[in-house]
Write a structure and sequence with these properties.
Blueprint (H helix, E strand, L loop, with lengths): L1 H20 L17 E3 L3 E3 L13 E3 L6 E20 L8 E5 L4 E3 L2 E6 L2 E20 L3 E3 L1 E5 L3 H5 L25 E3 L6 E3 L29 E2 L8 E11 L2 E6 L5 H5 L3 E4 L2 E5 L9 E5 L6 E8 L15 E6 L1 E3 L3 E2 L5 E2 L26 E2 L5 E2 L23 E2 L5 E2 L3 E2 L5 E2 L27 E2 L5 E2 L4 E2 L5 E2 L37 E2 L5 E2 L5 H4 L14 E2 L5 E2 L2 E5 L4 E5 L1
Antiparallel strand pairs: 1-4, 2-3, 3-9, 4-8, 4-10, 5-6, 5-8, 7-8, 11-21, 12-14, 13-20, 14-19, 15-18, 15-20, 16-17, 16-19, 22-23, 24-25, 26-27, 28-29, 30-31, 32-33, 34-35, 36-37, 38-39
InterPro entries: EGF, FTP1, Galactose-bd-like_sf, LE_dom, MEGF10/SREC1/2-like
Organism: Littorina littorea (Common periwinkle)
Keywords: Calcium, Disulfide bond, EGF-like domain, Metal-binding, Signal
Length: about 575
């Protein structure tokens, strides 16, 4: 299963790389990383060879004459340039006495001191772009010039300052770029042991020294690129990456200028003998190329570049290999995946950096409390001791209030992060939302006697039933009843045989449980107030209950006789 997941991850990474780069070989910067100067002329050379000033020669060249001496350097017919670097002896002609002009349009280039390198002052001009064929360097007096470099990219672009990872190690870039920030990748080929089948004015290690300039030179003190011998019919260059890596892409800086098809067409890149990519002539466009390996991406320790002999010779050269830098970028420890944007899980056993840089699988398994190959899932909160099966997360038995194969769910009566909170009186057998404890809105939501989102609020006096939607009967004492059933104790004048106290006493009874009869002297057929028993009395009965007769005195004037009667 793990191999299947790993294969899927590699396939995904390969497709992602294809989408990211957009093509097999990607151009990084519009312009050249190589010195545009390819020839120079002057009638004022008194010491040295004029070609030294553009081939990073063996010594400086001195120019002198009775009038203003100068030297013209050719960068190509109508070429644009953005950067010029002039190297002068530290104890030579002062910088302020040197004039540099783009000769086609007579634009004078204002130089500033940029750095001191190997006892030489480096003056910089950057701007434009200017279009010209010749650049003239001159002075009012004799002067010495050690080197001139002209680029059609800015110096920051040449130094690759804006790339968090791909910085040019050329000494001229020191101090120009800030320290790399947030680079999550590492070039595992940098300064590693390299070898080649043969060498022509170079050493195999130059292709992994971090200097991405692409000017090939005859000066051994300035060598930066590798070149196998022209008579080597089985050329190769190889770097030992130190350990096995899955190689998705290789960045190659080819030699600048010349004929790129002759320099790089037919190169085959392998990793431990497994094919990454063969470069055909259609793909040779840029001086810096990202070569995307075939799918599946090869895995291994030794990256090798070969160029097979096919019997053909271009421009009197055999199948030599001429490269300036080879980079193999992989994720730094602690990061993995396409673009190295994913961090190894904190659940990895040991150091957090101990995960596979391709798929994030933890090298030493998971710490207690984590599972899956990447140890990115936490064991259920209800697992005893916090431990679970590191493959599928299952555990048993669960702690109280927890349930499920992974003990990662609260049981039906509890909720919260730790399942410690009891659900309220929800209508559905106390089942509530496992996160916030709210009861489902089932209309009604709550069991009789309760209301609120969590059904944990008792009905207020005078209310009862589900969600407390019903009102207690007016016959209930103090208008209060049982919040669940609605039953209550009846007021005077109501029949207690009805538990809801909804039935009043009949017309001839009143009081507690209608236990008393209205007075016989009540008018309207012995009808009285159901609560107090009061009524309007007939003649001869005593209010307010009309239940007792009274004596009446009547004088008979004829007989003067008092008669008493009830």
């Amino acid at each position: 299963m793990a191999r299947g997941v790993e294969a899927s991850c590699r396939c995904y990474l390969f497709l992602s790389l294809m989408l990211w780069h957009g093509c097999i070989f990607r151009q990084f910067v519009e312009g050249s990383f190589g010195n545009l100067v390819h020839s120079a002329s002057s009638s004022h050379v008194t010491e040295g060879d004029v070609k030294y000033i553009y081939e990073t020669g063996k010594s400086c060249v001195t120019f002198a004459s009775n009038s203003a001496p100068y030297v013209d350097v050719n960068i190509g017919n109508g070429r644009q340039f953005r950067t010029a670097l002039i190297y002068l002896p530290k104890d030579g002609t002062p910088l302020e006495d040197i004039t540099v002009t783009a000769s086609t349009n007579k634009n004078e280039l204002s130089l500033t001191k940029h750095a001191e390198v190997n006892g030489q002052i480096v003056a910089l001009w950057t701007g434009g772009p200017f279009t010209t064929t010749w650049i003239r360097i001159e002075s009012t007096n004799s002067f010495s010039l050690c080197l001139i470099k002209v680029y059609d990219v800015t110096l920051r672009e040449y130094c690759e300052c804006d790339d968090a990872c791909h910085r040019n190690a050329d000494v001229i870039c020191h101090g120009l770029c800030s320290e790399p920030q947030n680079c999550k990748k590492v070039n595992v080929a940098l300064n590693k042991l390299a070898k080649s089948s043969s060498n022509r004015q170079s050493e195999a290690s130059y292709a992994v020294d971090g200097i991405t300039g692409i000017t090939f030179t005859n000066d051994s003190t300035q060598w930066n690129c590798i070149h196998t011998a022209v008579n080597d019919t089985s050329p190769f260059w190889q770097v030992d990456l130190g350990k096995e890596y899955t190689v998705f892409s290789v960045i190659i800086y080819r030699r600048g200028g010349g004929r790129p098809q002759e320099q790089i067409t037919g190169l085959t890149v392998t990793v431990d003998g497994n094919l990454c990519k063969t470069i055909d002539i259609a793909n040779v466009r840029d001086e810096k190329m990202s070569v995307i390996c075939n799918n599946p991406a090869p895995n291994g320790r030794f990256l090798k570049i070969t160029r097979p002999w096919t019997g053909w010779i271009l421009n009197d050269y055999g199948p030599s290999i001429n490269l300036c830098e080879v980079q193999v970028w992989v994720c730094k420890p602690g990061y993995y995946g396409f673009g190295c944007t994913s961090e190894c899980s904190e659940g990895c056993s040991g150091e957090r950096t101990d995960c596979d840089i391709d798929n994030g699988f933890c090298t030493n398994g998971c710490d207690d409390g984590w599972y899956t190959a990447t140890c990115s899932q936490e064991c259920g909160g209800g697992c005893t001791g916090g431990r679970c099966n590191q493959t599928d997360g299952q555990c048993s038995p669960c702690l109280p209030n927890w349930t499920g194969d992974k003990c990662d769910q609260c049981d039906a009566q509890h909720y919260g992060d730790d399942c410690s909170k009891a659900c309220g009186h929800c209508r559905d057998q106390n089942r509530c939302d496992r996160r916030d404890g709210s009861c489902p809105n089932d209309n009604p939501r709550c069991q009789p006697g309760y209301t609120g989102l969590h059904c944990n609020e008792s009905c207020s006096p005078g209310r009862y039933g589900p969600d407390c939607r019903q009102s207690c009967s007016e016959g209930c004492r103090s208008a209060a009843c049982d919040g669940t059933t609605g039953h209550c104790k009846c007021r005077h004048g109501w029949q207690e045989s009805d538990p809801f106290c909804t039935k009043k006493c009949d017309s001839e009874t009143y009081g507690t449980n209608c236990s008393r009869e209205c007075g016989v002297g009540c008018q309207n057929t012995n009808s009285c107030d159901r609560t107090t028993g009061q009524c309007s009395c007939d003649v001869g009965y005593q209010p307010p209950l009309c239940d007792k007769g009274v004596y009446l005195s009547i004088l008979d004037k004829r007989t003067s006789f008092f008669c008493c009667f009830l």
